[in-house]
Amino acid sequence: MRGVCPARLLLTVVFVLAGCRSSDELPTQQGFVTTADSVRLYYRSVGRGDTVVVIPMAMYLEDALAPLAAPGRRLVFYDPRHRGRSSRGELSRVSLDRQIEDLERLRAELGIERMALLGWSGLGMEMAVYAIRHPDRVTRLVQVGAVPPAARIMQQAGGDRRDDRIDRAAIAALDRRNEAGEFAADPAAFCRARGLLTVPANFANSSLAARVPDPCRYENEWPVHLWPYFEALLGSMGEFDWLDEIGALDIPRLVVHGREDGIPLAGARAWAAGFPNARLLVLSPAGHFPFLEQPDTFFPAVNRFLSGDWPAAAEQVMR
After folding, report:
1. Which of 294, 263, 286 shows the shortest CA–CA distance to 205?
2. CA distances from 59 to 52, 63, 65, 153, 282 (A)
3. Which domains does the chain have, with CATH numbers?
4. Cα–Cα–Cα angle for 289, 294, 306, nearest 5°?
5. Which residue among 40, 63, 104, 268 is least packed, with the fewest CB closer than 10 Å?
6. Is 295 left (phi over 0), alpha (psi -120 to 50) or beta?
7. Average pLDDT over all residues of the chain
8. pTM (2 decimals)?
9. Tell me: the pLDDT tens digits for 55-77?
């Protein structure tokens, strides 16, 4: 965006849904925030109120986490750069630091003074890093199926157990077909074929994998784009370790983890262990999508936490 001051972001509202079909329908707005390096970040805002909850990975979560809507609460979903409906910038600009900067710019442009954060999977770790760097902006933090706070914890626990649940021979055969050019004209088909082999590994009950929204409808999620993005992002993190920094956080944190998640439970315990203002809620049977496998437990617990109370089943973890 030539001619735009690089020191600030431009907010481009695409449309506002007006004329609700019923008096109970929540006001919804969606659009894009354009960063100084011309990356457009998609967002969708649902509801209104003084309590704002910001949730990355809209492409997966804006429908799945709809039950978190409540009177007086505004949910803001967004897609990080290179993901979902957001645009792709230069891979050289992809990093954990940039992810944190993007969220801070999104917050400022949407006029949010303070917010609760909900991060799932790798974003569970990233939202904690944002809170570490901007503690005055965060009221509460929910971490769901989060990557551990230190890289060594994953290694010590034997790595990601989802790898053991995938048919490696079938993956290799599919990749060979792709390398031979079979999917050159239809990369979305390759994306979906790979998903059929990998997504069920995220569930305790693999038959529930069909509940996951189709990410392959977005070009960003095709392996040809997604894999280089992950390589750049993970490469920027190195042997990360946030254990000392999270000790200084005094905001309430709820850590939710599926007992059958491929990401080790040891990582979830490390996020909560020894911190008086953190609680751990373990759901079972549940894998990496506990909100899809255990919704009757997940949503009352997270709603209670966002409303200011600890869920009854959430426990303090001793070191």
Report:
1. 286
2. 19, 8, 11, 28, 25
3. 10-158+236-306 (3.40.50.1820)
4. 85
5. 63
6. alpha
7. 92
8. 0.91
9. 999 999 999 999 999 999 999 99
